[in-house]
Amino acid sequence: MKLFPWRRLTIQAHDTLSSKIPSLSFINFSPSLFHSLPEQEDIFDPPFSSTLKTQKSITEKRENAASFEDSEKAHNFTINSDLPFDFRYSYSETNPAVEPIGFREPPRFSPFGPGRLDRKWTGTSAPRLQPVDLEKVAEERRRILGETLSEEETAELVEKYRHNDCSRQMNLGRGGVTHNMLEDIHGHWKRAEAVRIKCLGVPTLDMDNVCSHLEEKSGGKVIYRHINILLLYRGRNYDPKSRPTVPVMLWKPLAPIYPKLVKNVADGLTFEETKAMRNKGFNAPPLTKLSRNGVYVNVVDKVRAAFETEEVVRLDCTYVGTSDCKRIGVKLRDLVPCVPILFKDEQIILWRGTKDEEHHSSGKAS
């Protein structure tokens, strides 16, 4: 058999080496020779050390015990809040008088965390435990606010905090006045006398409602209001060290299920009349076009003015979103008042109602 030159040289070199060291060819290179003997075992050799495994298991047990103790401490940590109102995710965008017909998550899951609040979560709110003395609460609020600001002091605060580049600003969106927003307000008040609040979206339909909830829940006072911009003043005698404790919601609770907003047949109309009203409104030109997270402060007045001459009004809410369309319809139903008869393709169709309802609403207003 022919061999390549490099192959012949390799075989010759091997034969020469074997002749010089005869015992080399009989050596068995066992893998065990590359490891230390059991009596010389190194405790830091992970594959063959039982001591290291024992130490690791002991360390894991200690860490598990420490984490269990921490979880027990967190579970036993309870906040006792004496704020004089029921805790809700949103105060300005929910109506406590309307009871839900179902829940999307079990009411036992409190958004404040297990065992972290001395109040029980009902699925929509955490009611206060003790009755509230409203006179005492009002007296404490007057004490914190102190004397009324003079025109010069008000003008100085407004000039300091009303601009867009103000560092003490908060955005109020579709959730309205939320519970966690109260903690953010007190956080700003710790270093500033007032906080600037920019309101956008559905809550701007009723700015009076937003201002009343901000003043009632935070204890401050709105000293400036321009369209959708608010300045909330903390008061002369505000002390950050003695401010009320506001427990924070750890997650946003799922919205419960409420009764159907639009009925198949509107009250005061037959099925054919309701269908004709819907077709008429859907084919009518839109009264106004609403943008997503826009400012809707003039929408209520526009709808009221349109109902003086029109029976049905359409609002174009393209790109606003289905959920926001329903929120807008609910607010307009209560503020105008009117009857929502159709939500379709992000269009809102409103009916002004019967004459009996109009006289009833005007009698309430008077």
From TrEMBL:
GO process terms (BP): Group II intron splicing; mRNA processing
Listed transmembrane segments? none
Q: Which residues form the signal peptide?
A: none
According to the UniProt entry, its GO molecular function terms are: RNA binding
What the entry lists under SUPFAM superfamilies is as follows: YhbY-like (SSF75471)
Q: Report any Pfam family annotated for this entry.
A: CRS1_YhbY
Note the InterPro entries from the entry: CAF1P_plant, RNA-binding_CRM, YhbY-like_sf
A single GO cellular-component term from the record reads: ribonucleoprotein complex
Domain named CRM is located at: 147-245, 267-363
The protein's UniProt keywords, in alphabetical order, are:
mRNA processing, mRNA splicing, Repeat, Ribonucleoprotein, RNA-binding, Transit peptide
Gene3D superfamilies associated with the record: YhbY-like
Name it. Answer: CRM domain-containing protein
Q: Which organism is it from?
A: Solanum pinnatisectum
